[in-house]
Amino acid sequence: MRGFTRRSAIALALVAALGVAACGGDDDSSGGGGGGSGAGVEVDKMVWAIQSPIQSMDPAIMADIPSLRAQSAVFDRVLSIDNKGVVQPWIASKFDISDPLKVVLTIRDDVKFWDGTPMAIDDVVYSIARHTGADSTSMQAPLFASVASVEATDASTVTITLAAPDPALPAKLSIWAQVRQQKYDEAAGEAIGGSDKPGMGTGPFSITSYSSADGAVLTRNDNYWAGKSKVKQLEFKVIGDPDTARLALSSGEIDGFFDVPLIATRQWDQLENATMTYVPGAYNDFLSMNVTRAPFDDVNARIAIGHLIDRAGLLGPLFNGRATVAQSIVPAIQMTATFGDDGAKKMYEAIGALPEFSIDKAKEALAKSATPDGFAVDLAVDTSQPWMSPLAQHLAENAKQVGITINVKQVSAADWGAGLFDPAGSPLQLVALGGATPWAGELPPVVFGTAAMFPIAGYGDEAIDGLAGEVAQAATVDAIRQPLQDLLTKATADLPYVPLFDEQAATAISNKFVWEGGYSYNAISQAWPLQLGGAG
Question: Is the model more confident about 53 or about 254?
C-alpha cells in the first residue's frame, strides 16, 4: 500500500499554519504546477514508464500513484500543492479559509473543457460534492467526511461548509478534487473512468487512448488556460520490471521512469543518457502487528519482533543509503516540516526510543510473553516492492534464533494490498505508507484508533481514539504538538507498528528533456507536464 500508499491512495492532510496560501493569486513563484509553458524547447513526444497500470482515470474509483500521475496530466484540480509543499490556487483563483467551518473558492471564468465548452460553476460543485455525503460511492468519501455541503453561492463562488474543522481540506482539494464535466460523467454511468469513458477534463492534456493494461496516450491541449506544454504528446507505458525499464531508458525506448526502486539505484546512477533525481519523500515503511490477535495480543511478543530487525544495518543493502531509520510512523519530512529540526528532535526524545536490534533482548521479551517457546506466523511481501522480500528474510532468519518461525510468502501487489485488510489474514504485515503533504498530523489518524481508515493493527481504545481525533482536527502546530506526542508515546510503548524506514523518492529522466524547477514529491498534485520541455 503505497503512496498513500505508493500504490493505494490514503488520506492527506495539510493546515494553514504550514503554508496554505489562503486568498492568494495564481502561483507563479514556487515551482511545480504554475502556469506557462515550462523550460526547454518544444518536442513531439515524451514516453514515461510506470511500474503499475493506470487503474482508472477517475480518482473516485482508484487513486493509486500511477493513476494519479496520469489523472493530474489531464484533469485540473481545484487547488494545487507546489514544490515547497504550499497549497496554491489553481482552478480556484483564490480561496479563503479564515472561517474554520468554511472553505470559500473563487472560480476562474476562463477555463474550457477539451471539447471547447466552458467549465461551469456546477461542474466544480459536482467535482467536489461527488466525494462527499453518506451516499457517495467515491473511495475518497472517508477523506471528506467533515464536509456538510458544497454549493455555488454565486456565479463564481463555491462554498464548502464543514460539520467540524478540517485543516486537511485544502490539501485534499489539491489531490482529489479533479474537475470533471458533470454531463459527460452522468452519461458515462458505470463506464466512468474506464477506457471507453475516461472523462472530460480541462487539463493540459486530453486523453487520446487509455487502457489499464497498456497505459495511455495523451495529446496536448493547445487551448489550455494556463499555457500549453512544450511536449505535444505524453505516453504512459507500463513496465513492471525496473531492470527492463532501465534498459529501455538506456536505449531511448522510454524517456523517464517514476519511483525508481532505491534498491536498484546504483545501476540507474550509471546511466549515461539520463539523470537521476532524489528528493525527500513522505514514504514510511513499517511492520504491523495486529494487537487483537494472538500472538500479538501480548505486548512482549511485539517487543520481541521489534528487537529482531537491524534497521540501520539494512539501509545500505535495501536502499543504497537513500533512506533513513524511521523514528516514528510519521514520515521524518513531515515531522521536521511541522515542528522544525529542533522541534522534531524534541518530539523524538519525548516519545521514546524503539526497540534496538538485539537477539538477546528479543529472547528476554519473548520469555515474558504468553508464547515463551515461540510461534509461527506468515508474512506476505509485495513482489513489486523490492525492499520487502530481503527485509522479511532478514527478520525470518533472526526469528529462528529465538524460536519464532516466520513463513515469508511472495505475493502480487493486489494480493498483498487485499491481505492487509483480510480478517482471516496474517496478523503480521509489512506496510509501505506514503503521505503527500508536510503535515505531521496526516497519517496517524489513518492507522490509529477504532475509527481509522486503515486500522491494520487493530490498535484503538477510548484513549487512542481520543488522541487520534485531536490530531485529526488540530489546526495549528501548537494544537497538534501535545496530542501527537501523547499518541506516539503510547504507540512506542505498545508497539502495534514498528517504524522501519523513511525513503527518498527517485525519478529518472532522459537528458533529452528538462523539468523546470525539478521533480517534486508533490508533482501528483500539480499540472506537472507544464514543467517539461526538450533540452534543445
Answer: 254
Instruction: Calculate the CA 462 to chain-centre distance.
Output: 28
pTM of the model: 0.83
Largest CA distance in the chain: 71
Question: Which residues are CB-neighbours of 28 under 8 A, at least 6 positions away?
Answer: 34, 35, 36
Supply angle C-alpha 213, 218, 221, rounded to 5. Answer: 160
Residue type, 237: K
Quick one: cell of 320? 543504497
Q: Hey, which residues does 151 pair with through a beta bridge?
A: 159
CA dihedral 494, 497, 498, 504 (to 10 degrees): -140
Q: Within 13 Å of residue 435, how many CA atoms lie on the same side as its CB?
A: 29
Query: What string of DSSP letters covers 153-199?
Result: EETTEEEEEESS--TTHHHHHHHT-B---HHHHHHHGGGBTSSSB--
Task: Flag whether pLDDT at 10 surpasses 50.
Answer: no
- Looking at residue 230, the DSSP 8-state letter turns out to be S
Q: Which amino acid is at 282?
A: A
Quote the CA–CA distance of 364 and 218 in Å, as a whole number.
59
pLDDT tens digits, one per residue of 157-206: 999 999 988 887 998 999 999 999 999 999 999 999 999 999 999 999 99
pLDDT at residue 36, rounded to an integer? 54
Domains and CATH numbers, the chain: 16-28+36-255+512-534 (3.40.190.10), 281-504 (3.10.105.10)
- Band the pLDDT of 1: cuts 50, 70, 90: very low
Point out which residues pair with 277 in neighbouring strands. Answer: 507
- Measured at the CA of 8, the angle between CA 7 and CA 14, to 5 degrees, comes to 105
Angle between helices 477-494 and 462-473 (to 10 degrees): 150
How buried is residue 222: exposed, middle or buried, by Cβ count under 10 Å (0-12/13-18/19+)?
A: exposed
3-state secondary structure of 504: strand
Distance CA 5, CA 526 (A): 18
Residue 118: is it exposed, middle or buried by C-beta count within 10 angstroms (0-12/13-18/19+)?
exposed
Query: From CA 475, how far away is CA 14, in angstroms rounded?
Result: 9
Measure CA 96 to chain center.
Answer: 25
From residue 145, alpha-carbon distances to 1, 79, 169, 171 in Å are 22, 19, 10, 14
Spatial distance between the Cα atoms of 514 and 516, rounded to a whole number of angstroms: 6
- Which 8-state DSSP code applies to residue 119? P
- Closest C-alpha to 79, from 59, 101, 103, 102: 103
